[in-house]
Model the fold of this input.
Amino acid sequence: MFSNRTRNEAHQGMKKWRDDVREQNDHASGEERVSTVSDLDIDPLYTPENIGDLDFAEKIGYPGTYPFTRGCQPTGYLGKVWTYRMFAGLGSAEDTNRRLHQLLEEGETGLSTAFDFPTLMGYDSDSPRSIAEVGKCGVAIDTMADFERLTRNIPLDRVTTSMTINPPASVLWAMYLVAAERQGVSWKKLGGTIQNDMLKEFIAQKTLMCPPEPSIRIISDTIEFGTSHVPRWNTISISGYHIREAGSTAVQELAFTLADGIAYVQDVMARKKLDVDAFAPRLSFFFDSHLDFFEEIAKLRAARRMWARIMKERFQAKNSRSWWLRFHTQTSGCSLTHQQPYNNIVRTTTEALAAVLGGTQSLHTNSFDEEFALPTEFAATIALRTQQILAEESGVINTIDPLAGSYFVESLTNRIEDEAWEYIRKIDDMGGMLAAISVGFPQQEIANAAYHFKQQVDSQKRVVVGVNKYAARQAESPIELLKVDEKVETEQVKRLRKVKKTRDNREVGRTLRDLRAACQSARNVMPSVIEAVRANATEQEICDVYREVFGEYRDPGFY
Amino acid sequence: MNQKRKLRVLIAKPGLDGHDRGARIIARGYRDAGYEVIYTGLHQVPEQIVAAAIQEDVDLVGLSCLSGAHLHHFGEVAKQLHEKGAGNMTVIGGGIIPETDIPALQKLGIKKVFLPGTSIAEIINWTNKNVKPANRLT
Done:
């Protein structure tokens, strides 16, 4: 990036600066260790010396051009602002449908649904395991009838929907496809995303069902099905978010996510014999945006550059779209505090700004009350407005990748990239991500990082405003909270029983037997799942087939 | 009864909630503070937690729930411990819990609820002060 002369001058200048500061006995002299939230060392000052040997064309370049450090789209946000996509789900399908419409009316540009724990784990609302969980942490969906209520009057040809669903992703996606069909919308027109990333479930989010190997097989089935029948759908969202929220560092989040991505690409190529360029353009990603502003920006820029290289060099992809790392970002839930909750609005704002400067395609901003309960409409609207203010008032979108060339940001981007490659090499040496998970490697690394962070907070080496510093001097006045009515559960169970009573049970039995046969062979499960959903088979009935054929995975309980 | 023996702690995750960062940190915190720790892992029904508590003969049961189902799950564990004659075990809890639910949880037999932002040291100090060895069953 810089001539030898400039680098030499920077070297001399830096030395002089250090000596001057030391003489003045200033604390910013670099003697005291300063580090990011992930505990990466940071220097007090960066100069051309730090990025002197960086090759502009090879490492930075232009937006829309390999290695895409500056973004996949040539025009950045000038062409299209990121999608305002608020994660929402509560109570019954009607309750959530109402919230989705409200968010769209407030200017949201994409939908994102949160399911309750029974739905996430493949249990119906009348299962003994679902007691007290129905509609609590998201919306309860048991059958196609619920799904149609969820999407009522939402034009599925005009809005894209992201569904955070993992072990039963094939089932909820089938419901979406059938709902679209009943709205008269062709699958070819449908856009959206299913999370469908089981590797990070074993590592971090822990909505669990079947063991890793069959889980990957079902995922490859969905990727294959989408490639030929739903070409605009992102059949997976390879997610670092939950890895980070479980306590990993930024480097671990990046490395484990990309290593998961490598495992999925390998499986689809080997199992389905698909050309990498046939499916890779529809792989999508999901990252966290945490408190450390520059660390997050550097992580996201490094992520695009690394994935482009992985796809081009490792997998020999030829289509430039296969090289793109397109991603959604969510601000960090675990950075929010129960104490002085209005401060969370400020935290979310800086995290959202980091995601934007890192070039996210889609963003969810957390609500200030999420350390207490699911967000109220009031709190969720402020979170949405935060994005709108950044995009439409602050001017940060007016030029593409504005931090490129910053000595510090480029240097940190390189550093994070180098450390993430180190992890990926380690995982490759272990035999890939599945092997690494089976010995608990990523799980243990994350647990160690989480504990280390907690100790730093407890010892006040890291400030948490309102918690370990500037704590409230008197009792705080309570904020208004959302409470999911206990009646949601009894009513949902009633609705489910009614569906079971009025449907054609012979047809349900036939479709489930067909699904079982698909599971027991190499036949793609998606057509059978779609048929079962059409016949009003419940989510659990379909997932029970998976559990019976493939077995169940239990959390090994690392700590 | 040997008063000097280490206190035994069961950390448990009831229900379908998968948020285990807090539970695992607390388990490690107790271990580093010299307690004997058993961690159940995720997705336990109250019956499993109660059976583990009795089988492992613990003094303290720590429950973690971030899904909003705390009133039912915590209450069930406390009730079933009582029914099985293990009512002398101390039961505490933590997670995403509105303050307004705390009195109800205490009524259900949850001796203490720790909210987000609590330090490990606070929890250990409280335990040292408030948890006595439960009458051993054996």
Q: What stands out?
A: The longest strand of chain A covers residues 283-289. The longest helix of chain A spans residues 407-430. Chain A has three domains: 4-56, 63-393+400-458, 501-550. Residues 4-56 of chain A form one domain.
